[in-house]
């Protein structure tokens, strides 16, 4: 398959399908995986940290739902289009430096910043989750 052939296809979906069929015919496999998937150990570790920091079950569950949607509990998740970063997808990510200099790598620092953000902007993680459900962002 030539590049010019792919360029002539109007729909990117069609180009992907055509490429997949051509790859399968050639004995290759194309796989799709989340670009920023967290390892189960990383995700469960971050969740355990958050649970200790947010002992109230309702607040933790709301916080967890937001983080699950935003980053899949991956502390190094980066939004390719906006540049939002971390568990809570701070934009810019450097905002989290106010919670600690290790904001790029420490889930506890990101959780602290995210919790402070949700409390100051919305009043609580539960209220932030309500806003997220209504708007698809927070």
TrEMBL record:
Gene3D superfamilies attached to this UniProt entry: 1.10.530.10
Keyword Signal among record annotations: yes
Signal peptide: 1-37
InterPro entries, alphabetized: Lysozyme-like_dom_sf, Transglycosylase_SLT_dom_1
Signal recorded as keyword: yes
Superkingdom classification of source: Bacteria
Domain Transglycosylase SLT: 62-126
Alphabetized UniProt keyword annotations: Signal
Official protein name in the record: Transglycosylase SLT domain-containing protein
Organism, scientific name: Streptomyces monashensis
